[in-house]
Amino acid sequence: PEIMPTEAAPYVAVMATGRSDFANQINNVLCFPGIFRGALDCLASDINKDMQLAAASAIAGCVPDQALRPDYIIPSIFDSSVSVAVAQAVIEAAQRSHVARKRVRGKTSLASLREGTMNTLREVRYTDMGL
Predict the structure, then answer these.
(1) Fewest 10 Å CB contacts: which of 36, 40, 79, 86?
(2) Hey, which residues does 69 pair with through a beta bridge?
(3) pTM of this structure
(4) Percentage, residues of the chain above pLDDT 70
(5) SS3 string of the chain?
(6) How far apart are the first and last CA of the chain?
(7) How far is residue 23's CA from residue 30's CA, in Å, rounded to a whole number?
Protein backbone atom coordinates (compact mmCIF):
# COMPACT_ATOMS: atom_id res chain seq x y z
CA PRO A 1 0.00 0.00 0.00
CA GLU A 2 0.97 3.62 -0.45
CA ILE A 3 0.67 4.07 3.30
CA MET A 4 0.59 1.38 5.92
CA PRO A 5 -2.82 1.06 7.55
CA THR A 6 -1.20 1.31 10.97
CA GLU A 7 0.19 4.73 10.01
CA ALA A 8 -3.15 5.98 8.66
CA ALA A 9 -5.27 4.65 11.55
CA PRO A 10 -4.95 7.70 13.83
CA TYR A 11 -6.22 9.98 11.05
CA VAL A 12 -9.23 8.09 9.69
CA ALA A 13 -12.58 6.92 11.03
CA VAL A 14 -12.93 4.08 8.51
CA MET A 15 -10.21 2.40 6.51
CA ALA A 16 -10.14 -0.29 3.84
CA THR A 17 -7.16 -1.89 2.18
CA GLY A 18 -6.29 -4.66 -0.23
CA ARG A 19 -4.34 -6.40 2.51
CA SER A 20 -5.86 -9.55 3.97
CA ASP A 21 -4.23 -8.99 7.36
CA PHE A 22 -6.38 -5.89 8.04
CA ALA A 23 -10.13 -5.41 8.38
CA ASN A 24 -12.19 -4.29 5.38
CA GLN A 25 -10.17 -6.09 2.73
CA ILE A 26 -11.04 -4.81 -0.74
CA ASN A 27 -10.62 -7.76 -3.07
CA ASN A 28 -11.93 -8.28 -6.59
CA VAL A 29 -12.84 -11.86 -5.69
CA LEU A 30 -15.99 -10.32 -4.20
CA CYS A 31 -17.28 -9.29 -7.62
CA PHE A 32 -15.95 -11.57 -10.32
CA PRO A 33 -17.61 -14.90 -9.60
CA GLY A 34 -21.02 -13.22 -9.43
CA ILE A 35 -20.48 -10.90 -12.40
CA PHE A 36 -19.44 -13.76 -14.65
CA ARG A 37 -22.16 -16.11 -13.38
CA GLY A 38 -24.84 -13.49 -13.94
CA ALA A 39 -23.52 -12.55 -17.37
CA LEU A 40 -23.32 -16.20 -18.44
CA ASP A 41 -26.77 -17.09 -17.09
CA CYS A 42 -28.48 -14.36 -19.11
CA LEU A 43 -26.11 -14.68 -22.09
CA ALA A 44 -25.20 -11.00 -21.79
CA SER A 45 -23.68 -9.53 -24.93
CA ASP A 46 -21.68 -7.07 -22.84
CA ILE A 47 -20.73 -6.31 -19.26
CA ASN A 48 -21.73 -2.68 -19.03
CA LYS A 49 -21.55 0.06 -16.41
CA ASP A 50 -25.09 -0.69 -15.17
CA MET A 51 -24.08 -4.28 -14.45
CA GLN A 52 -20.89 -3.15 -12.70
CA LEU A 53 -22.78 -0.68 -10.51
CA ALA A 54 -25.39 -3.33 -9.72
CA ALA A 55 -22.59 -5.67 -8.62
CA ALA A 56 -21.10 -2.98 -6.37
CA SER A 57 -24.49 -2.26 -4.81
CA ALA A 58 -25.10 -5.96 -4.25
CA ILE A 59 -21.74 -6.30 -2.48
CA ALA A 60 -22.55 -3.33 -0.26
CA GLY A 61 -25.99 -4.80 0.44
CA CYS A 62 -24.44 -7.97 1.85
CA VAL A 63 -23.52 -6.05 5.01
CA PRO A 64 -26.74 -5.20 6.86
CA ASP A 65 -26.97 -1.64 8.19
CA GLN A 66 -27.13 -2.87 11.79
CA ALA A 67 -23.86 -4.79 11.28
CA LEU A 68 -21.90 -1.83 9.89
CA ARG A 69 -19.00 -0.66 12.00
CA PRO A 70 -15.61 0.91 11.21
CA ASP A 71 -13.93 -2.48 10.92
CA TYR A 72 -16.78 -4.10 8.95
CA ILE A 73 -17.95 -2.15 5.89
CA ILE A 74 -17.46 -4.86 3.25
CA PRO A 75 -18.35 -8.56 3.39
CA SER A 76 -15.75 -11.25 3.81
CA ILE A 77 -14.40 -12.96 0.72
CA PHE A 78 -15.59 -16.20 2.35
CA ASP A 79 -19.25 -15.08 2.47
CA SER A 80 -20.92 -17.29 -0.14
CA SER A 81 -24.03 -15.09 -0.24
CA VAL A 82 -22.03 -12.38 -2.03
CA SER A 83 -21.68 -14.29 -5.32
CA VAL A 84 -25.38 -15.12 -5.32
CA ALA A 85 -26.39 -11.50 -4.65
CA VAL A 86 -23.98 -10.16 -7.29
CA ALA A 87 -25.12 -12.69 -9.92
CA GLN A 88 -28.78 -11.82 -9.34
CA ALA A 89 -28.08 -8.08 -9.50
CA VAL A 90 -26.05 -8.47 -12.69
CA ILE A 91 -28.81 -10.49 -14.36
CA GLU A 92 -31.41 -7.86 -13.46
CA ALA A 93 -29.18 -5.01 -14.67
CA ALA A 94 -28.43 -6.83 -17.93
CA GLN A 95 -32.14 -7.30 -18.54
CA ARG A 96 -32.91 -3.65 -17.72
CA SER A 97 -30.12 -2.41 -20.00
CA HIS A 98 -31.11 -4.75 -22.86
CA VAL A 99 -27.85 -6.71 -23.12
CA ALA A 100 -29.37 -9.97 -21.81
CA ARG A 101 -30.00 -12.37 -24.68
CA LYS A 102 -31.84 -14.83 -22.43
CA ARG A 103 -34.62 -14.06 -19.96
CA VAL A 104 -33.86 -15.43 -16.49
CA ARG A 105 -36.82 -15.82 -14.18
CA GLY A 106 -36.75 -16.29 -10.44
CA LYS A 107 -34.00 -15.77 -7.94
CA THR A 108 -30.50 -17.19 -8.18
CA SER A 109 -29.36 -19.57 -5.46
CA LEU A 110 -25.94 -20.87 -4.51
CA ALA A 111 -26.96 -24.33 -5.70
CA SER A 112 -28.11 -23.00 -9.07
CA LEU A 113 -24.85 -21.09 -9.43
CA ARG A 114 -22.87 -24.29 -8.96
CA GLU A 115 -25.14 -26.45 -11.13
CA GLY A 116 -25.60 -23.90 -13.88
CA THR A 117 -21.99 -23.35 -14.82
CA MET A 118 -21.54 -26.27 -17.22
CA ASN A 119 -25.06 -26.04 -18.64
CA THR A 120 -24.64 -22.36 -19.42
CA LEU A 121 -21.27 -22.88 -21.03
CA ARG A 122 -22.73 -25.61 -23.25
CA GLU A 123 -25.67 -23.36 -24.13
CA VAL A 124 -23.41 -20.44 -25.05
CA ARG A 125 -21.28 -22.68 -27.25
CA TYR A 126 -24.26 -24.17 -29.08
CA THR A 127 -26.13 -20.86 -29.35
CA ASP A 128 -23.13 -19.10 -30.84
CA MET A 129 -22.73 -21.93 -33.35
CA GLY A 130 -26.39 -21.70 -34.35
CA LEU A 131 -27.09 -25.26 -33.20
Answers:
(1) 79
(2) 72
(3) 0.79
(4) 81
(5) CCCCHHHHHHHCCCCCECCCCCCCECCHHHCHHHHHHHHHHCCCCCCCHHHHHHHHHHHHHCCCHHHCECCECCCCCCCCHHHHHHHHHHHHHHHHCCCCCCCCCCCCCHHHHHHHHHHHHHHHHHHHCCC
(6) 50
(7) 15
